[in-house]
Design a protein that fits this description.
It is built from 3 helices and 16 strands. By secondary structure, it is mostly beta strands. A hairpin with a 2-residue loop joins strand 6 (68-69) and strand 7 (72-73).
């Protein structure tokens, strides 16, 4: 258990390295990431589910926009780029309002203005999301012979590389299953998970989750009949295993966070079940750290 707590603390400390800074643009305060830093600086972030890009030159910050009127994009960002880079002869016609295209344009300008400029392009941009959820489970990977439902709560710390591995994530999870009046089993579980997001948009992520390592602390109360009398035995223990169980889930962006839905532990390859249909659903909320 101590090793999992140390890993959890390490992840929490790692969030302090995230390269975001607050800027005031047209009277509004935004937390923005630096993509290119130089004579002109490219700032960006996803705000209310939309990608927003900003150009910083000196102390002035200009948002790069591409609004749509009567079904046609106005491409205001091209006029802004042309104005801010008028002192360099760089074609703007083929520049798109995307992070890779803007990155290349900003770097090209900076190299013209500073012959010694070196592109410090990021190979990795770690981002973290912290979430909590609650739900119900029928604990099919235990001896739940009467298939009783139990309440469950959990925490997740998700780590994402926003540059090259946008569809992939590693997750450190904690989950507690409460005993019910009809099934006297409870458990606290720490887990390591891999997540693949086969649907990824600024508003919605849908993913498959693979749980590949768990450390579980459990309590169980067994009642049985012996020689005409009812007897109860209590057992406690711990188990470290590699269950390789699979789940599906979704994150829907609302404001600065995400509403989360999970269908957990649907199939397990290295663990026995009680032959019941899996009922393990949760609803929760997570936010960017």
């Amino acid at each position: 258990m101590k090793s999992f707590l140390l890993v959890f603390c390490f992840f929490l400390l790692a969030i302090s390295v995230q390269g975001q800074q607050e800027y005031i643009v047209d009277g509004e305060t935004y937390s923005l990431k630096t993509e290119v830093d130089g004579p002109i600086t490219l700032l960006w972030n996803t705000i209310d589910g939309k990608y927003r890009y900003f150009l910083k030159k000196g102390i002035q910050i200009t948002e790069l926009k591409n609004t749509k009127q009567n079904g046609k994009y106005q491409e205001e960002y091209k006029a802004a780029l042309k104005e801010k880079t008028a002192d360099a002869n760089i074609p703007i016609k083929k520049v798109n309002l995307t992070l890779p295209s803007l990155h290349a344009f900003f770097v090209e300008y900076n190299k013209i203005k500073d012959p010694n400029y070196a592109d410090a392009e990021k190979n990795i941009d770690l981002q973290f999301r912290l979430g909590a959820y609650a739900g119900i489970t029928n604990s099919i990977y235990t001896a739940n012979v009467e298939n009783k439902l139990q309440p469950v709560v959990g925490l997740e710390l998700e780590m994402i590389d926003a540059v090259k591995l946008k569809r992939h994530a590693m997750v450190l999870g904690f989950r507690h299953t409460f005993e019910s009046s009809e099934y006297k089993y409870s458990a606290s579980q720490f887990s390591l998970n891999y997540r693949f997001k086969f649907v990824k948009t600024p508003k919605l992520d849908i993913y498959v989750n693979a749980k590949f390592a768990t450390l579980t602390f459990f309590k169980n109360e067994i009642t049985y009949s012996q020689e005409g009398t009812q007897k109860t035995e209590k057992e406690t223990g711990s188990d470290f295993s590699a269950p390789l169980t699979f789940a599906i889930g979704a994150d829907y962006r609302v404001g600065k966070g995400y509403i989360t839905f999970g269908y957990h532990d649907i199939v397990g390859l290295n663990v026995d079940n009680n032959k019941e249909f899996p009922i393990d659903f949760s609803l929760g909320y997570k936010f960017n750290l």
